[in-house]
Task: inverse folding
């Protein structure tokens, strides 16, 4: 059955954080190779990666989005691919009510009535709650193009009037481009994601640089766009 998201949530007995356990979507077979599965980085990679992310600074894209949106004041934000929760924490500190989504969430955050955690892969999401901000930092490219396109429709549908989406996507010059388990876009394709929205921030990187798994060539697009009121 598809994932049903209840923002009232249930209280996690061990952490007192509202947590939703995702059921497998009919699109997901439970085996590697399903839509959205990534073979380049398996679950063991992400466990190690997340364990080493807890002390890093909040990503610039998230900081910029928070500057543009102003205080959360109880509005709803979604953190897709929340991982260790560094940006989730920043959203909570700014007063947002947060739905944090990850196939294997590794958050270490004190109990907070404003936080709901959903353990689910992107391919399992059939919908999101109405949101004033959807943030996805270095997360969306790690799924097939079919899954990416479907999820982007879900994201766009969730945006309230005046709501913003803030995401990183990968470009076709990236070292990993050509991997069929990921999504890599041209600049025109990346800009087209914001058709009908107002682009407030756009930044392209096309250069070598460090990565958790070793040096690589990065080709990325930072995008923040706002739905009209």
Result:
């Amino acid at each position: 059955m598809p994932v049903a998201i209840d923002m009232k949530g249930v209280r996690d007995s061990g952490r007192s954080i509202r947590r939703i356990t995702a059921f497998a979507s009919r699109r997901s077979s439970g085996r590697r190779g399903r839509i959205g599965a990534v073979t380049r980085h398996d679950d063991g990679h992400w466990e190690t990666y997340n364990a080493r992310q807890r002390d890093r600074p909040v990503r610039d894209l998230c900081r910029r989005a928070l500057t543009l949106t102003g205080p959360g004041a109880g509005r709803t934000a979604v953190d897709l691919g929340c991982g260790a929760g560094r940006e989730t924490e920043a959203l909570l500190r700014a007063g947002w009510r947060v739905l944090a989504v990850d196939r294997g969430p590794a958050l270490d955050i004190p109990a907070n009535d404003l936080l709901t955690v959903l353990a689910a892969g992107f391919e399992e999401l059939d919908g999101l709650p109405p949101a004033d901000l959807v943030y996805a930092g270095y997360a969306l490219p790690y799924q097939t193009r079919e899954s990416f396109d479907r999820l982007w429709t879900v994201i766009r549908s969730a945006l309230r009037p005046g709501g913003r989406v803030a995401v990183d996507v990968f470009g076709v010059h990236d070292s990993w481009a050509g991997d069929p388990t990921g999504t890599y876009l041209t600049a025109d394709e990346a800009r087209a994601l914001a058709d009908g929205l107002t682009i407030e921030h756009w930044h392209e990187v096309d250069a070598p640089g460090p990565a958790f798994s070793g040096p690589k060539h990065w080709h990325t697009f930072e995008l923040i766009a706002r739905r009209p009121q």
In short: The first strand starts at residue 18 and ends at 21. Residues 145-158 form the longest helix (14 residues).
